[in-house]
Design brief:
Bound molecules: protoporphyrin IX containing FE
Keywords: Heme, Iron, Metal-binding, Monooxygenase, Oxidoreductase
Pfam families: p450 (PF00067)
CATH architecture of one domain: Orthogonal Bundle
Family: Belongs to the cytochrome P450 family.
CATH class of one domain: Mainly Alpha
Organism: Lentzea waywayandensis
GO molecular function: heme binding; iron ion binding; monooxygenase activity; oxidoreductase activity, acting on paired donors, with incorporation or reduction of molecular oxygen
Helix content: 40-55%
CATH topology of one domain: Cytochrome p450
Distance between the termini: 55 Å
Number of helices: 14
Largest sheet: 5 strands, mixed
Order of helices and strands: HEEHEHHHEHHHHHHHHEEEEHEEEE
Radius of gyration: 21 Å
């Protein structure tokens, strides 16, 4: 076993769209030991094969895993692993009991049925942006409201709670929030959600996600509420940041933007390449697991009890595709790791894909001359432990 104990500063980037300074060199191809920002020692696995192995091998547990260990200075978990409904923090049959019914709500067929509504939301927001005129902030005009409205509708949350959800979702994923702050935000959401869940339970309806969970499963009330909070939070922040980052990458690579402008009908495949590349360029120490037995990964012995972070910089591994370090919108879709892999692979991937495909295509069809109003390198970026994205994207057309 190596004795390396480097701790590259994960949040220092020379360029906002490139990996943290020194990170690719420090992680190399193989598992290396590093310190998380809270001082906990962990293996960083960064090869395509290694990441797939860790994320799909049951000997790597997600229990007590997840980002929170990395967020706190004390090394304690923000999120209690025994919190009912903590789908990303449990393994095996316990995990599948929660996951299986939820997957039904996110099936491709269901997401395809949602497409016309997603298109309508996108069109309405682009209408408003156009009517107000340039310059506009793309984040508040489209990136943030789109996923926020869609997830709330999918869950069946009444529109009057939109603003609270949008604000609280940001707080839940906020930078280094203390355990108390986190719980306060979650409690605020839980108070609003409890009566909505109770009402749907009483009505016996299953035509939205909350109804489906309340009436077609054996989930307890605590599980239901926490799952709703998780879905609302996951549904807001990630997709919103990625729609912004995709646009910024295209602004920085005019030849690639030209490919999208030339053939927007391939937007679906292009979104896969943008996802692969963007997630890879984010670098960072991604998703956490803990070994329950000794396991060899990429020729290195990881001992039972060791922490492991997988880095999705693995999306830039040549093993995945040739010239993996390049964004190439003419490439066919490849099996990237942008939505994770294995039993915890993103539940909302089909939803995120539909939103990103429709959002990106419509944006550049409506505004063929869309360009940044200030250089991409001078924009403000929100760099939390969990999410990364531009705080504002001023654009003109
Ligand atoms: C571009 C957008 C998104 C990205 C990049 C993304 C990424 C990910 C990744 C990498 C994981 C795996 C976590 C792990 O292995 O520990 C994950 C899990 C998850 N995602 Fe997403 N996600 C996105 C959008 C969404 C949306 C829209 C939703 C829901 C509405 C969602 C819900 C979830 C849930 C519930 C899990 C946990 C699944 C489990 O543990 O079984 N995600 N996501």
């Amino acid at each position: 076993m190596t004795e390396t104990a480097v701790c590259p500063v994960l949040h220092e980037r020379d360029h906002p769209l490139q990996p943290p300074v020194g990170f690719p060199e420090a992680v190399g191809d193989g598992p290396v030991k590093m310190l998380w920002p809270n001082g906990v020692e962990a293996w960083i696995v960064s090869s395509y094969a290694g990441v797939r192995q860790v994320l799909s091998d049951a000997r790597f547990s997600t229990r007590k895993g997840g980002q929170p260990e990395m967020r706190t200075d004390e090394g304690e978990t923000v999120l209690d692993p025994d919190q009912p409904g903590n789908i990303n923090g449990i393994d095996g049959a316990e995990h599948m009991r929660l996951r299986r019914p939820l997957s039904r709500g996110f099936m491709v067929k269901r997401m395809n049925e949602l497409r016309p509504r997603i298109q309508q939301i996108v069109d309405e927001h682009l209408d408003v942006m156009e009517a107000k005129g340039a310059p506009a902030d793309l984040v508040t005009s489209l990136c943030l409201p789109l996923p926020s409205l869609v997830i709330a509708e999918l869950l069946g949350v009444p529109p009057e709670h939109q603003e609270l959800f949008q604000a609280t979702a940001g707080d839940l994923f906020g930078k280094n929030g203390s355990k108390d702050e986190y719980l306060a935000h979650a409690t605020k959401l839980a108070e609003v959600l409890a009566p909505i869940v109770a009402e749907k339970k009483a009505a016996g309806t299953n035509d939205d996600m909350i109804g489906l969970m309340a009436n077609d499963t054996d989930f307890s009330m605590d599980e239901l509420i926490f799952l709703c909070i998780g879905l609302l939070a996951a549904g807001h922040e990630t997709t919103s940041n990625f729609l912004g980052l995709f646009t910024l990458h295209l602004f920085e690579k005019p030849d690639q933007l030209e490919i999208l402008r030339r053939d927007p009908s391939r937007a679906d495949v292009m979104v896969e390449e943008l996802m692969r590349y963007t997630v890879g360029q984010l670098g960072g120490a991604g998703l956490t697991r803990r070994a329950t037995e000794d396991v060899e990964v990429d020729g290195v012995l990881i001992k039972a009890g060791d922490w492991v972070s997988v880095s999705l910089i693995a999306n830039l591994d040549e093993e995945l595709c040739p010239r993996a370090e390049e964004l190439d919108l003419e490439r066919d879709a490849v099996s990237h790791l942008g939505f994770g892999f294995g039993p915890h692979q993103c539940l909302g991937a089909n939803l995120a894909r539909a939103e990103l495909q429709i959002g990106l295509r419509s944006l550049f069809e409506r505004f063929p001359n869309l360009r940044p109003a200030v250089p991409v390198t001078e924009m403000d970026y929100r760099d939390d432990m969990i999410t990364y994205g531009a705080a504002e994207i001023p654009v003109v057309w």
